[in-house]
Design brief:
77% of the residues lie in helices and 0% in strands. The protein is mostly helical and 213 residues long.
């Protein structure tokens, strides 16, 4: 069962905790929250694009709304997962290292924790890509009065993806396996390039529609 210890906190409390000296919630969980807000903006744009005027676009609109609901749930899970992954990494660092066996066990635990801490933000980047693909899908047909909100959603998704990318990069330093580090790096770079391209496409359409073109 997904924990909601942080997800259900008030916004003000979450912001205060994020800005405190405590390490959690940190950048990964803040990025997940930003992606959830991006999904909320895209959901609103979808919900306000219902009715006869949008009848020919209802398949795209309906599927986008369904996707945003799914992505919101994923962001909730990833926000909590990021905090748990960091806590696991800190626990691994604090393991004893007096004997050779303890050092080996500690190193294995750090490797496993680093893998988990890298995997969570990579999953968040994928969530953001799904959000951006769907935002791009409806940018030209959603309600013109809320197209700016869809653009805001795209900006939040891309910012979240780039932020998660930074978390991936700092966690990669703890991975001893050079081939695995390179694999993660290539995967992340490709995903972030797509995210930036999708955001640009969405904003191009948004600005064009705002200008009345």
């Amino acid at each position: 069962m997904t924990s909601t210890v942080w997800w259900n906190r008030m916004v003000g409390e979450f912001v205060r905790e994020a800005g405190s000296v405590e390490p959690t919630p940190g950048g990964g969980s803040v990025a997940a929250l930003a992606a959830a807000l991006g999904a909320a903006m895209a959901s609103m744009a979808s919900r306000l694009s219902q009715g006869e005027a949008f009848a020919s676009f209802q398949t795209s609109i309906g599927e986008t709304l369904e996707t945003m609901n799914r992505l919101t749930r994923a962001c909730e899970e990833l926000l909590e997962a990021d905090i748990r992954a960091f806590e696991e990494y800190m626990r691994a660092l604090k393991l004893p290292k007096e004997s050779e066996e303890e050092r080996a066990a500690r190193r294995t635990a750090i490797d496993e924790a680093a893998m988990g801490a890298t995997g969570v933000p990579l999953r968040l980047v994928q969530v953001c890509l799904d959000g951006l693909r769907n935002a791009e899908r409806i940018a030209g047909c959603c309600n013109k009065h809320v197209v700016s909100d869809l653009g805001i959603g795209a900006l939040l998704f891309e910012a979240s993806a780039q932020s998660a990318g930074l978390t991936v990069r700092i966690n990669l330093r703890s991975l001893r396996n050079a081939d695995l580090r390179a694999q993660y790096e290539r995967q992340m770079v490709a995903m972030l390039q797509e995210a930036e391209s999708l955001k640009t496409q969405v904003l191009r359409t948004v600005h064009s529609r705002i200008a009345g073109h």
